[in-house]
Each structure stands twice: as structure tokens, then as C-alpha cells.
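Action item from last week, closing it out:
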Amino acid sequence: MRICIIGSGNVASVMAKTLYSCGHSISVICGRNKKTASKLATTVDALYINHPSEIPDISDIYIIATDDRSIADVVKQLQDYNKTVVHTSGATAIDVLQKFKSHGVLYPINSITAKLKAVEEGTFFCIEANSSTVNRKLRKVVTDIKCKSVIINSKERLAVHVAAVFANNFVNALYQASYNLLQEQNLKFDIIKPLLLTTLNNALITEPRKHQTGPAVRKDTITLKKHLSFLKSHPELKTIYSQLSKLIEEQQK
């Protein structure tokens, strides 16, 4: 299948390389950052185009893999080639693509960084399409790269995106907070790694709240006060600690 990738950031780059390695033809890489986009085009043997309005009609699927703020602008600039146009956003509704007769969404539920050479096998993709034909086409693309798909609507996809931010972005920020607190005491982050793995493994077994431990669950006010006192030099973490402790208490009801 001939695929045009619009964008040259992390998602665009990893998607292009993944599809290319699985036998798809990357016909065009379109990106305003000439350095990164032209380099990506060379990597996947594609034609480099600087502006969406100049993309030639040589592809079967056009994948808009830009940041959310740019999607609507790209849509306005793209010609309607009567081919399938999709975006990869978790938070942008499918309606933004309504000018195209054939359109859909291909959102990967995973953390995609510049270091990745390919989308991790087994990754779930949220698929939304305006027709059964587009649905089948996108499901085939996902299968080709050895990933899985789930068919959902825009509201459900937004819920997935919000849930992913809680489970990934927010948790990772809390990991960094833990790292910093330990560093301040000249302690290594390694000492809590087994705890992190235990927590993750438990969460994957059943409903996470059933494995919740700690002073908030026990309603151990003495320990809670000690922790809050320890965090007095970190007012932002003290606030987060209080809010999350209340959340834990509520989740146990």
C-alpha cells in the first residue's frame, strides 16, 4: 500500500519506519521542518514535500501525524484526492476530516519517542472510520505491523487518551518526583524499582484499587502528617500528596 505521512515528529517518524519495514511503500513525507522531514524521507525512500498543498496524488492513504493544533490547518491545505485521509490523534474528533469522502482515525495507545525504531508489537490502535471500507483498510494496516486494534468512537477515544495521560504521563511525573526526593538524600532510585514492578504487575491482574496500600488506605493520620511535614520544603508536592491521598480514600468507598 502506498502511504503518505504528513509530519516528521516522533509519531510520524516511527509510523513511517514501522510501515516501511513491514513492506508498505512510503510514497511521500511532508513536513515543514526540512531537516527532519527530508532525513526521514531518505530513510524510507520517499519523496520529500515541504507543504501539504503540494502533495501529489500518488498515495492510497494519507496519514496526518502532526500535533493536534496543526491537524485542522493541514486539512484545509490538503486537496481531496478521493483517497483515505486519517489522523493519529487521541484527542481530536473524527469530524475534523469530514471534507474527505473517505476518512478515519488511527491512534496508537503507546508512548512513542524518538528513540523507537518501530511501534512496539502488540500495541493497541484505536480505529474510527466513516465507512466499513475504511475500517477494513485501517485494520489491515494495524495487522500488518503486528499490532492490535479496537473500534471506538471519538468520545471513547478521548476517554482512552485521558486515561493514558493519567496512567503514563502523570505516573511518570510522579516517578521523577520520587527520584528527586531520593536524590536529595543521596539515595538511589534503584531501591524502589522492585516496588514499582510489584505495583504494575498487581494492576495488570485485576482492578488496581484492590491492591492499594499505604497510609491513606489505612487512614493512618499520624504517618500522613509526618509525610506532609517532610514535604514542607516542596509545597507543590505537598499539595499533590494531599490530593492523591484524598483520591485514594474516595476510591476505597
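Closing note: The chain has a mean pLDDT of 96.
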